[in-house]
């Protein structure tokens, strides 16, 4: 099972990682469970990434990009992209 890494930005609450996952998922009218299933992970794991509580693994990040047909930089800010890569 692919899981993300919990990360806390220095001095910021754990949920401070902004990302573009919610907008992309809602634009496709999908539930978190549906996206998670297609990515081969759990809804809980996907939910924590979407909510900004953790950073996805490199493998899961690649699956997210393929699923949403975008680049990693379209989903996460530069500092998060550097941590994933």
What does this structure look like?
The chain is mainly alpha-helical and 85 residues long. It has a single domain (13-84), classed as lambda repressor-like DNA-binding domains (434 Repressor (Amino-terminal Domain)), CATH 1.10.260.40. The chain is 53% helix and 5% strand. It is built from six helices and two strands; from the N terminus they run βαααβααα. Strands 1-2 form a two-stranded antiparallel ribbon. The two termini are 19 Å apart.
What is the CATH architecture descriptor?
Orthogonal Bundle
Instruction: Give the integer mean of the pLDDT values.
Output: 85
| Total DSSP E strands | 2
Strand order, largest beta sheet = 1-2
N-C termini distance:
19 Å
Largest sheet: 2 strands, antiparallel
Question: What does the overall shape look like?
Answer: globular
How many structural domains in the coordinates?
1
Helix amount, in percent? 40-55%
Strand/helix succession: EHHHEHHH
Poorly predicted segments = 11-15
Determine the strand fraction and express it as a percent band: under 5%
Radius of gyration: 12 Å
Could you tell me the CATH topology label. 434 Repressor (Amino-terminal Domain)
Q: What is the CATH domain class?
A: Mainly Alpha
The helix tally amounts to 6
Based on secondary structure, the structural category is mainly alpha
CATH superfamily, by name, is: lambda repressor-like DNA-binding domains
């Amino acid at each position: 099972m692919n899981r993300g890494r919990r990360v806390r930005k220095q001095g910021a609450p754990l949920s401070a990682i902004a990302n573009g996952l919610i907008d992309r998922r809602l634009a496709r009218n999908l539930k978190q469970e549906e996206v998670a299933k297609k990515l081969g992970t759990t809804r809980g794991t996907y939910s924590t990434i979407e909510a900004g509580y953790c950073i996805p693994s490199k493998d899961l990040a690649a699956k997210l990009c393929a699923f949403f047909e975008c680049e990693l930089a379209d989903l996460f800010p530069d500092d998060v992209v550097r941590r994933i890569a």
